[in-house]
Every structure is written in structure tokens, then in C-alpha cells.
Design brief:
This protein is an alpha/beta fold and about 450 residues long. The chain is built from 20 helices and 14 strands. A hairpin with an 8-residue loop joins strand 9 and strand 10. The longest helix is centred in the N-terminal third of the chain and has 35 residues. It is extended.
């Protein structure tokens, strides 16, 4: 796309000649003959570059530069003058001009000045893009409950969050229970343009079906027996901000219809109301269920699923990022110490080995519970293996731990065991994936996918 150049010069023949020259060189140009007209145009339209004459009636070039600064206009300005001196050029640069060229000039001279300014614009745009990226990443990694870890799986997740945070698009966050889906939603909100507006989280499975529609969409007075006054509802409470619908798979059919209206039309209809109310809310949804399977079984609306699943984000389980466990454990210990107003505990190396080797079916939430229990029962500030629950103390074989646990989900148990078998095959073959695939009796391609899913890219390599 060609850059837009605004030419400001009171000499109409010269301005028209310059416009024709630049147009032939591929620039999108526009001409005005007064500095004030240029300011007005810059307020309403975007120009990357401005060529401005220094000597004009009513407002000269230096005054134009001052006015641009006062009005917060950031186009790159190259000044021109047939009456130029070194002092005038220096003053123009001091007031914000990028370059100064003397009239009359050769075509190559002005094109070279514009090319240099173009490069400056590209660099400035790139710096602004990087600054925005870093600011969003800082927001995602900050907050009271940040996403902790440096694993490849978490790095990829954070990169995805940086991308989706900038847009108001609906996001469906999936993952096992306890992986931190609400933390991911809060991170998206913190890094988004809505960061200063409300963030409201609601667990759809924790509210009785009879009042869920009223809680979400509100009601008018007299809508039902106990409706003694109007209630705005959570969507209006979150207006301008973000609403997280946790466990969205639990929504009953009647409420799914109302949610679909919000996503399609941007409006809600309170219970008992005769007209809809517009709302400006970014919807984030989270679930540990397989909503595609729920759609196939007729438990979830297909059209609503596609509206929610615009940007799917999967939160990896703790077993897929075991290298993050030491950092997460350290953060949890610090948080518990602050909350309980006690000295911070530390982990004995043998205790840490057990935590790293355990498959954590309950993910980070289970790790939090285990460490809090250990702190309460421990005899010293250094947590020993004996301070851990019995099932962790004997967790020498993850496969046996999984089979001996209270976990009855065939899907979860299969994932635990499959990951452990892949680890063993990679260790036995020194990271040779072709040989490991033969031992596992699966295709090489299938193994590559599973290695990525389980975060085992570097496992077994010598």
C-alpha cells in the first residue's frame, strides 16, 4: 500500500507540480494551500508524511510544527523553503521536523528525503508494535495470580494470549479441571484494551437453573414472584469489560438461546422485559467438557458452539509442563506464607523430586492443596517427603500412581499412562523418535503430534 503524503504550500503551481511528481513515484498525495487547512485535514485523515512550506500567510511552517505538537499529531514532517538559512533549518528540526530541503530541488532530492522518512516511519511503527507486544506480555505475566513457568508449552500459550487480547473476539478456553482457565481469562482481560473496565467471572454450573437466566440477563420488576425491583444482570454489570462464563457447558438450553442473542446481536433481553438492551461485553467461555461431543449428543447448541469457538485456547495440564513445577511450587509457598502470615517454607530436594514425578491429575489446584496441607502439618520450615500425602510419598511409578488413585476417568488415566510410556520409549532410545515409535507401535507422525501435546520435545535426548 502506498504511503499518503500531504503537501502544504501556498504556491499552487509548485504544489501541483510536486503532487504530479510524487504521484508518478507511487505516493498517494493530497494538496492544501494553507497550514490551518493542513491541520484540519490531519485531524480527520491519516498521512504518514507531510511536505510543508516554511513561508506561508496566516500561519508559517514553524507555527504549523508547534500546532501539530499541541494537537498531538504525529505525522513525519519535511519542511521546504526558498528562503532557507542554516538557522531556520535548525529551528525547524528543533520544533519537530524530520528533515529540511531547500527550494528549488531536484526530483531525486525530494524522493530521497521521502525514502529516508519512510524508513523512519517503518522503524517507528515496528518499535510501537514491539512495545505493545511487550506491554501485553507484561500484563499477562503480571497481576495477583500470574501464569507461572518458562516451559515451551506455557510460552506458546502466552504468545497466543498476546495475540487474542487485542481483539474483542469471543474465546473458548478449554482444559482439565485445575489447570487455571480463569487465570488465562484474567490474563486476556489485563492485556486487552478493556483492562480498566470490569472483569466478571461466573460459574454457570454453580447457579441454580431457575435463576441463572435472571443472574445473567437481569429481570424487570414483577417478572416473577420475588422480582420486587429491576435487576441489571451480569452482562450489564460487565458492560464495557469482560465476562467469563466458566463451565459454559453446564448452561441449560433456555439460557443458551439468550447467550446466542448476545453474541449475534450484542443485546440482552431481561426476564419479563418487552425490549432488548444493547451491551458491549467481551465474552470469554471456559469448560473442561468436550463441547463438540456435547453438540453431537444434543446437549449443546451447535450454532452457539461455533459462536463461542471463534478463538479456541487449550490450557495444557501440569503433566505437560513438569519443568514449571519448581517455579509454581515456589510461588504457591510464597502466597500461602503471606496469606497465613507465617514464615515461607522451602522444599527438600527429595520432596521436589516427588512433586516433579507425580502426574497431578488435579493439576495446579491439587498442587496448591498438597503444599498447604504440608505446611500445616510439617514440623519445620523445610518440607520433607513425609509431610506429603501417602499417595505422593509412594509415587515412584506414575503409571501405578494413576491406577492406584481415585481417578475413574478412562480418558484422563489413559493420557497419564500414554505420556509415561512415551517418556520411557524416548529415554530408552536416547531421543530417537523413529525407534521410539516402533517400540510404542504407533506411526512416527502420531508420535510427533503426541510429543508436542505432552511437552516432551527435548525428552530423552543425550
Amino acid at each position: 500500500m502506498s504511503l499518503r503524503v500531504l503537501i502544504i504550500d501556498d504556491e499552487e503551481p509548485f504544489a501541483n507540480m510536486l503532487q504530479a511528481m510524487l504521484t508518478r513515484s507511487g505516493y498517494d498525495t493530497q494538496v492544501v494551500h494553507r497550514a490551518q487547512a493542513g491541520l484540519d485535514l490531519l485531524q480527520s485523515e491519516s498521512f504518514e508524511l507531510v511536505l510543508c512550506d516554511m513561508k506561508m500567510p496566516q500561519m508559517n511552517g514553524l507555527e504549523f510544527l508547534d500546532a501539530m505538537k499541541e494537537q498531538g499529531l504525529h505525522s513525519t514532517v519535511i519542511t521546504m523553503s526558498a528562503f532557507g538559512t542554516i538557522d531556520l533549518a535548525i529551528e525547524a528540526l528543533r520544533r519537530g521536523a524530520y528533515d529540511y530541503i531547500s527550494k528549488p530541488f531536484q526530483r531525486d532530492e525530494v524522493i530521497l528525503a521521502l525514502r529516508k522518512a519512510e524508513e523512519r516511519e517503518r522503524l517507528r511503527a515496528r518499535v510501537a508494535e514491539l512495545e505493545t507486544h511487550v506491554a501485553r506480555l507484561d500484563a499477562i505475566e503480571g497481576g495477583d495470580r500470574p501464569l507461572i513457568g518458562k516451559s515451551e508449552a506455557l510460552r506458546l500459550l502466552k504468545e497466543m494470549l498476546v495475540k487474542v487480547a487485542a481483539f474483542p473476539t469471543t474465546v473458548l478456553i478449554t482444559g482439565d479441571s485445575g489447570t487455571g482457565k480463569e487465570l488465562v481469562a484474567r490474563a486476556i482481560h489485563r492485556a486487552s484494551p478493556r483492562r480498566d473496565e470490569p472483569f466478571i467471572a461466573v460459574n454457570c454450573g454453580a447457579i441454580p437453573e431457575t435463576i441463572l437466566e435472571s443472574e445473567l440477563f437481569g429481570h424487570v420488576r414483577g417478572a416473577f414472584t420475588d422480582a420486587k425491583s429491576d435487576k441489571p444482570g451480569l452482562f450489564r454489570d460487565a458492560d464495557g469489560g469482560t465476562l467469563l462464563l466458566d463451565e459454559v457447558g453446564e448452561l441449560p438450553g433456555s439460557v443458551q438461546v439468550g447467550l446466542l442473542r448476545v453474541l449475534q446481536e450484542g443485546e440482552i433481553r431481561p426476564v419479563g422485559a418487552t425490549r432488548s438492551i444493547p451491551v458491549n461485553v467481551r465474552v470469554l467461555a471456559a469448560t473442561h467438557r468436550n463441547l463438540e461431543a456435547e453438540v453431537q449428543e444434543g446437549n449443546f447448541r451447535e450454532d452457539l458452539f461455533y459462536r463461542l469457538n471463534v478463538l479456541p485456547i487449550h490450557v495444557p495440564p501440569l503433566r505437560a509442563r513438569v519443568e514449571d513445577i519448581p517455579l509454581i511450587a515456589e510461588h504457591i509457598l510464597k502466597s500461602i506464607a503471606s496469606r497465613m502470615n507465617v514464615a515461607q517454607s522451602s522444599l527438600h530436594p527429595d520432596t521436589m523430586k516427588i512433586l516433579i514425578g507425580y502426574p497431578w491429575p488435579g493439576n495446579v489446584r491439587e498442587l496448591e492443596n498438597v503444599l498447604e496441607r504440608a505446611i500445616v502439618l510439617a514440623e519445620s520450615s523445610v518440607l520433607q517427603p513425609a509431610d506429603l500425602p501417602i499417595q505422593l510419598q509412594h509415587a515412584t511409578d506414575p503409571v501405578q500412581v494413576t491406577l492406584g488413585s481415585d481417578e475413574l476417568s478412562v480418558k484422563k488415566a489413559t493420557l497419564f499412562i500414554e505420556r509415561e510410556l512415551i517418556k520411557r520409549a524416548l529415554e530408552r532410545t536416547g531421543g530417537n523418535r523413529t525407534q521410539a515409535a516402533k517400540l510404542l507401535e504407533i506411526s512416527h507422525r502420531a508420535l510427533l503430534y503426541k510429543i508436542k501435546d505432552y511437552g516432551l520435545q527435548n525428552h530423552g535426548q543425550r
